[in-house]
Amino acid sequence: MKRYPFLIILTILVSCVPFDKDGTRDVSDKNDSINIYYTRSISKDVSLEEKRESIDRALFLAKDLEADSILGKLMYKKSSLLFQAGDYNSLVAHHDSFVTMQSEVDRPRLKASQYYLMGYYYDRIQSDYSRAFENYSAAKSQFELAKDSSWTGNCLLLMGVIQKNQNDFFGSKETVTEALQFLRESRDIKKMVQYYGLLATNHRKLLNFEDAIFYYTKAIKNSGSLEDRIAFENNLAATYIDNGRYEEAIALLDKIVGNTALDSTPVVYARILDNLSYAQWLLEKKDVGASFQKALQIRKEKKDWRGQLASYTHLGEFHLEDRSNRAKAYFDTVIQVAKKIEVPRAEIDALKFLMQIDPENVKLRDRYILLADSLDSQELKVKTQFAKYKYDDKIKQESILRLEKEKAEQALLTAKERNQKTISYLGSLTMLLGLGFAIYFFKQRTRHLKEQNRLTRLEATLETEAEMSRRLHDDFGAGLNQTMLMINADVDRTAVLDKLDGLYNQSRNFSREVNEVAIGTHFKEAFLEMLRFRTPSDANLFMTGVKDVQWNEMAPLSQKVLFKAIQELMINMGKHSSADMITIVFKSTEKVLTVNYSDNGVGASLKELNAKNGLWNTEKRIQAIGGSITFDSHKGQGFKAHITIPL
Predict the structure, then answer these.
(1) Burial class, 205, CB count within 10 angstroms (exposed 0-12 / middle 13-18 / buried 19+)
(2) What's the pLDDT tens digit per position in 419-439?
């Protein structure tokens, strides 16, 4: 009973605290109002105009709050509503406000969503490829910070599409390959189909027809809809035509031209009919003029201007030999349409044919040269611009991370200074005691780690020696024993000498494999040559980030260990995995090189991985220099390895 008076007094004191004086209750009420307005802005039961009014009211109430999560959510919602309403001028102005205050919004996903929305706007509404690429690139970086690999890969695919549309096929191929490390077939099958199709188109434009056929075939196999599959089959047939394989193109186009699904997509039907007619004419010189005209008429009715370019060009080629005047008229029409929709590449193609008809026409030649030079300059400018956007965004992200680190360090310093003012003598003494204990602990730990590292190095060396001994006994020793038996049996001298020469070459190759690794300035060339040599003829090797690594600045020991590690992975892949696609991604910082290896082979179980001495030796070598390697593999699901090497 004696404790009750104390509880009563405590209750009275708490009740008398001036709770409203510091504004806490006001802030709580304001947050409640903001949430009410925000909830109304996302409700399906109110009009778009009411949603916009609600979000504006919520933003007005939130303008003085230091609540970045609320503010960022409200800012993005307003952008979304402006886009839905088609109020694009206000959307652009609002985005400028978002960029101005984005330092107050500390949530990467909100930033990513905002930049993605603007990328979509410039891409699909304004057709401004430059700003679309810039915003998609910024969205990609923010999704990566938010650890959303699926959307990171999606942004990279959209960037690759823009590069492809601007004839930057090499750049598009590199960007699409980068997207692969963020996508998973089991989770992102639709994006993977887009990846295959886009990579196939880049290979086709770069005249790598076999690779284009390979990836179009994969896209067809994985397509989830009939419309997508037909589109990819048409592109595959066009690749056959480009490669002179007309019979295969005709067989494929004959199969799909009669599909009833094309009844609802006349533009696609016209594209397939035009390609089929073109392939039949190229193969057999058949009279396909009526088919060409039918495809052209559909394209005129549907205002398919790009399709008309193809039709007029094919009709010009069709009449080139026997009716040059009619061919000239078609090519002149190509030029008119190309100028109308600003496709200079089509005009250049038409000028090539017109110069065949009238080789003495100086104006045609001068126009062709002017256009070709202008187009080359424009494409070079575009490629440089895309590369700059990616580089600038990378630098910006590094700057953000550096500023965040400095901010954290400054906050820590401020906290320390504040705490120092309240630390008493007893606290200082406790700190000194703790510091002494920490020093003692870390000295002991350092001694233990040094001893452990020494044992690891010794263990790796002994295992390597054991592996060398086994190979010398099993391979070289068996051959030597056979040679001795041949000598005792008086076998022909030439056969004995051939056997000895083979043993000499075997010992030289063994010595080179064990010891010879070019280091220093020649390391990069030797390393890449090893990768090319170890890649099977029926497999594709994709590498990104090679140019970003300062190879010459790596320590010689790190170069040797990296060479041996990747060589062992490639040897293991070639012997066991049956992979047809290998991806290696390099990323470097000031002190660490990170290597992500993956292939789509048969994979291995944990028991099989533990049984591989080569992989075990590789792990020991890397650990001995302070690096790390982790394996991720399951039977039938490919093989992955993540490696870090100190520079």
Answers:
(1) middle
(2) 666 666 666 677 777 777 778
